[in-house]
């Protein structure tokens, strides 16, 4: 494809975001008028009547969900969910009533609604419902304390962030008109949290079974089995367990192990407390990681796979100092943190693959000073279908200082970063910029300049279908980098173009992505098959060569973004991709991909531990 064609396609898809009627408030999209509701009912009834005609498909009729159904009391419930908290602000919380609901057939806004379909009843019978005390441990408010509407809304967001909860509603319940106390009702609708993942190739197959809400405690567990087809004994096994929010401290404990027949393994033991909310005052982590793996090194037109073994000890702590609140509900924090990371190589590759002693022990000491202003905006139809999604907005400015001890030499480190995310009348915009360098022998080396921007349009509609236009730009530039081939960037897979893989590397790259995403009004067993169209263009350059004179790598894809309304698993894309050229593979290549895609992940202002700017 020529550069003119890329420009034309980009302008065309940018125009579609403004061509159709747009909804500036996607939360209102789920409100349909009576004519639309009747059309939906007629469609679903026609589908069900058709399936009931034939014995083979008769049982499938009940699997089609009717998204137009509304409870007779929906107006009353909608009114209650929009209660003005002002009349209850400051009243003492007398009692907190927590109700948890199974995932199928229930509604957190209408407690009189119960499952009617057999498939829903059977599914709920197999589900371990979240325990009330699991929900209570996530709340930021408590009994016998004054009610704060901000803490109620933030508690809703924290609960929605849990993998095992799909939707949640927290509302005050009046005791009497003259009472100085108030009751709080918390209603949480579960997700189905057990799922299977697998993959099969001509060389190996694997299966993974995960549970994200073990016994309703919110704990996570998985087991993994991998079989290589060279022999029955050639296999690998692993497991992992995460105990969340131990003793209501918001500290998580995580342990995992994997080992295979080649004595490759991974061992992890971590205790961690995140800045799980802007109101969190402290966070920290202590972890030990031991790994033995094959490293892919491309050198002089050959690929090598030497075994490496590493041991990592990692500890960090941070404290947030609240600053003055503004009138728009944003939370302002000044955060100070420090980190120590010890990387030890117990096994290294041969000398000819360890150029510049690249694989050698490291002692990293870092401190970070950050000014954060953060808030959340609720929206729908971004990555989920109709459920509320909390989009982080605000800005952050941080300074990172420290030292790196490597090859018996101590090198000062300096890093800067800025992040911004906001909603405007035309949609969502975010920007992230980072830069970092080491001072080595009075010269600035191992420098990284990195940036990423994301835009998505307001929702626009055609009949019952909804659409968004996504754009993403990312660039990475390295200066005075190590001569080792691993210290390079590529546009392979998640580092640039999904589905693309080659042995071409550089010191800088620019990737442009555009995706037109639709949201289908139809579902089957909760599954949504949402068509999309995607274009990726990547530029890969080297030092001392004009950037845009380098080769262009690209992909055009059409497919389905597959999600489920009830099941807790990461959505994935099934697509047919066209690659005009992949070096060392050929021209005009078609591939079918089945991947989990977080290519358009949004900016988050959840505080991250101090780190050097990642060069990839």
UniProtKB/TrEMBL annotation:
Q: Which organism is it from?
A: Capnocytophaga felis
Q: What is this protein called?
A: POTRA domain-containing protein
């Amino acid at each position: 494809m020529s550069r003119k064609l890329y420009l034309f396609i980009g302008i065309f898809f940018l125009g579609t975001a403004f061509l159709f009627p747009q909804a500036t408030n996607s939360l209102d999209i789920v409100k349909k008028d009576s004519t639309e509701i009747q059309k939906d009912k007629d469609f679903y009834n026609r589908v069900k009547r058709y399936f009931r005609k034939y014995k083979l498909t008769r049982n499938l009729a009940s699997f089609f969900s009717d998204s137009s159904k509304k409870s007779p009391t929906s107006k009353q419930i909608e009114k209650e969910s929009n209660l003005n908290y002002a009349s209850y602000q400051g009243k003492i919380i007398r009692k907190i009533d927590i109700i948890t609901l199974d995932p199928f057939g229930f509604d957190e806004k209408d407690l009189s609604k119960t499952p009617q379909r057999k498939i829903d009843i059977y599914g709920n019978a197999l589900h371990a419902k979240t325990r009330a005390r699991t929900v209570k441990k996530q709340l930021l408010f408590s009994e016998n304390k004054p009610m704060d509407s901000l803490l109620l809304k933030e508690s809703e967001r924290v609960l929605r962030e849990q993998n095992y909860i799909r939707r949640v509603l927290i509302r005050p319940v009046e005791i009497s008109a003259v009472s100085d106390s108030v009751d709080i009702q918390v209603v949480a609708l579960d997700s189905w949290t057990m799922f299977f993942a697998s993959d099969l190739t001509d060389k190996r197959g694997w299966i993974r079974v995960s549970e994200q809400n073990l016994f309703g405690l919110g704990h996570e567990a998985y087991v993994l089995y991998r079989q290589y087809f060279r022999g029955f004994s050639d296999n690998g096994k692993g497991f992992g367990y995460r105990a969340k929010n131990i003793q209501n401290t918001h500290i998580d404990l995580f342990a995992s192990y994997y080992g295979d027949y080649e004595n490759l393994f991974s061992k992890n033991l971590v205790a961690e407390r995140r800045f799980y909310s802007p109101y969190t005052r402290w966070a920290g982590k202590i972890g030990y990681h031991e790994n033995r793996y094959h490293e892919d090194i491309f050198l002089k037109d050959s690929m090598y796979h030497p075994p490496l073994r590493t041991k990592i000890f990692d500890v960090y702590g941070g404290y947030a100092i609240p600053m003055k609140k503004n009138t728009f509900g944003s939370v302002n924090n000044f955060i100070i943190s420090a980190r120590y990371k010890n990387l030890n190589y117990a096994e290294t590759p041969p000398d000819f693959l360890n150029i510049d002693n690249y694989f050698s022990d490291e002692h990293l000491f870092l401190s970070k000073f950050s000014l954060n202003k953060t808030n959340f905006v609720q929206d729908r139809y971004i990555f989920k279908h109709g459920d509320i999604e909390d989009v982080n907005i605000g800005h952050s400015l941080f300074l990172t200082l420290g030292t790196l001890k490597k090859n018996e030499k101590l090198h000062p480190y300096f890093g800067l970063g800025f992040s911004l995310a906001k909603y405007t009348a035309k949609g969502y915009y975010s920007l992230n910029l980072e830069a970092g360098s080491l001072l080595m022998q009075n010269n600035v080396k191992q420098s990284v300049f990195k940036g990423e921007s994301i835009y998505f349009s307001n929702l626009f509609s055609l009949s019952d279908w909804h659409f968004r236009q996504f754009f993403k730009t990312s660039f990475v530039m390295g200066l005075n980098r190590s001569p080792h081939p691993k210290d390079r960037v590529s546009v392979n897979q998640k580092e640039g173009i999904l589905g693309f893989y080659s042995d071409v590397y550089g010191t800088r790259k620019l990737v442009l992505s555009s995706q037109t995403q639709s949201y289908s009004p139809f579902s089957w067993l909760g599954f949504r098959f949402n068509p999309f169209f995607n274009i990726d263009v990547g530029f890969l350059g080297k030092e001392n060569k004009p950037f845009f004179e380098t080769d262009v790598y690209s992909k055009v894809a059409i497919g389905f973004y597959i999600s489920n309304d009830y099941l807790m698993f990461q959505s994935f894309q099934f697509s047919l991709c066209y690659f005009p050229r992949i070096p060392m593979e050929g021209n005009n290549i078609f591939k079918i991909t089945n991947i989990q895609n977080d290519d358009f992940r949004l900016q988050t202002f959840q505080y991250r531990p101090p780190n050097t700017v990642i060069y990839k």
